[in-house]
Write a structure and sequence with these properties.
Elements lengths: L1 H11 L8 E2 L21 E2 L14 E6 L27 H4 L10 E13 L5 E14 L7 E13 L5 E12 L2 E2 L3 E5 L5 E9 L7 E15 L9 E12 L7 E3 L5 E6 H4 L1 H12 L15 E2 L4 H12 L12 E6 L14 E9 L2 E8 L7 E7 H18 L7 E7 L1
Parallel strand pairs: 14-20, 17-19
Antiparallel strand pairs: 1-9, 2-3, 3-4, 4-5, 5-6, 6-10, 7-9, 7-11, 8-10, 11-12, 12-13, 15-20, 16-19, 17-18
Length: 413
């Protein structure tokens, strides 16, 4: 936890840090041919070249970039933002770094432990250094299908026989995006940390979308002294990014493996939020009608506001006002803006949410929830329209929900 806290503090101060410089690939001294087998199980190892300045007895400089379980081994379920606490920012480094899943729809953090080691000819340890690499990005912090990775490398421990270590990080795009220059940094003392950034840009065209995946290439060097010893490469594929120019007034990017979210708070939208929650909890007993859940998400419809208004008119046809609800309106669920919306009244159950003594209760006024696939609810117009005009439209833009794409409806206090 202390290491993560230090990483977070370093990320917060990146504007003041320029220790990681854009540079080309470092040049390592050529290693002479050798018949001696390299150590096994110690990462990538190369022979110590003559005249390198390595400590007495050192035969092999070895480096390791280890990892948490690979992405292919973890479930691609709802992102932390789907179930994080209200007080925490699910897209923050604190919520993502050193954790799994390590990404949300709008942010990611990749961490890798680093190790540099001198081994003797008998595989005895001559000297070691251990550090940490963190790569963090918040996709919505930069507009126009651009995003920035904040890179932090730390040196946690180091033997006296290793004067300094070096990390060279290069990323390339597989797909329709470009990355800025590589980063290289040198660490000398335990507790040192260096920060820098890598910028990405996607040239996605108007009304189109494009997928990209980032590929990372890391070289770890031991400086002995001041001369990089031979190193081998460490490579891995990172997060897949989807950029589009179909949503909002400017292009943007998200991580498509995570389900988009529409969050509706009861404290803001009252009976409307209670309506959606009731529908999800009660219609699920009768098949797959618990729409808006992770198991049965809604899908954004096509046709925009005009089509949503037409479908709302179908569902809310002949919906009577209720005397207990001021400025009563028909709030439909599934939403008319979704593919699942637009059900006829005969397919719906009519309900009346009411708050009595600080507790919400729902009365079924008409219809049979055992067969219903939709809900019509008595909700004040301000709450009904507030959900549509604020939460739904904001989520479409921020989570970049494309037409036909799935999204989840989350109810919070």
């Amino acid at each position: 936890m202390k290491r993560v806290r230090r990483l977070l503090a370093a990320i917060a101060s990146l504007a003041l840090t320029a220790a990681l410089l854009a540079l080309g690939t470092s040049q390592a001294a050529a290693a002479p041919a050798t018949a001696r087998p390299a150590p096994h199980g110690h990462g990538t190892c190369t022979p110590v070249p003559l005249g390198s300045g390595a400590p007495k007895g050192a035969a092999w400089p070895c480096s390791e970039v280890t990892s948490v379980p690979p992405a292919s081994a973890r479930a691609l379920g709802p992102a932390p933002r789907d179930n994080g606490s209200d007080s925490d920012d699910p897209d923050s480094p604190d919520s993502l770094c050193d954790k799994q899943p390590n990404s949300t729809r709008l942010a990611y953090c990749i961490t890798r432990p680093l190790r540099w080691t001198y081994y003797g000819p008998d595989n005895s340890v001559i000297g070691t250094a251990e550090g940490y690499l963190a790569i963090y990005s918040r996709l919505k912090s930069v507009t126009n299908a651009n995003w920035r990775e904040h890179v932090i490398v730390t040196l946690d421990r180091k033997s006296e026989k290793i004067p300094a270590v070096q990390m060279n990080l290069q990323s390339t795009c597989i797909g329709q995006c470009t990355a800025s220059a590589p980063l290289i940094g040198t660490l000398t003392n335990p507790g040192d940390h260096l920060g820098g950034s890598i910028d990405y840009s996607s040239s996605v065209g108007q009304d189109s979308e494009a997928l990209s995946r980032i590929h990372y290439h890391v070289e770890l060097n031991i400086l002995a002294p001041g001369v990089p010893l031979p190193t081998e490469n460490n490579d891995w594929d990172g997060i897949q990014i989807r950029c589009d120019a179909k949503v909002s007034s400017s292009p943007g990017c998200i991580i498509p493996e995570h389900l988009a979210n529409v969050t509706v708070r009861e404290s803001l939208y009252h009976a409307a939020a209670v309506t959606y929650e009731w529908a999800q909890k009660n219609l699920q007993k009768f098949g797959s009608n618990n729409f808006g859940t992770a198991e049965h998400p809604l899908h954004r419809g096509s046709g925009g506001k005009k089509e949503a208004d037409r479908k709302r008119g179908i569902t809310c046809r002949s919906f009577p006002d209720h005397p207990s609800v001021p400025d009563d309106s028909c709030d439909e669920f599934p939403f008319a803006m979704s593919n699942e919306g637009g059900n006829p009244p005969s397919a719906c159950v009519d309900i009346l949410p009411q708050k009595v003594g600080g507790v919400w209760s729902v009365t079924v006024l008409h219809g049979d929830e055992a067969t219903a696939r939709c809900v019509r609810s008595h909700v004040t117009r301000v709450d009904n329209e507030g959900v549509g005009q604020r939460e739904l439209s904001a989520a479409v833009n921020s989570d970049r929900i494309l037409e036909g794409e799935a999204f989840q409806v989350i109810i919070k206090p």
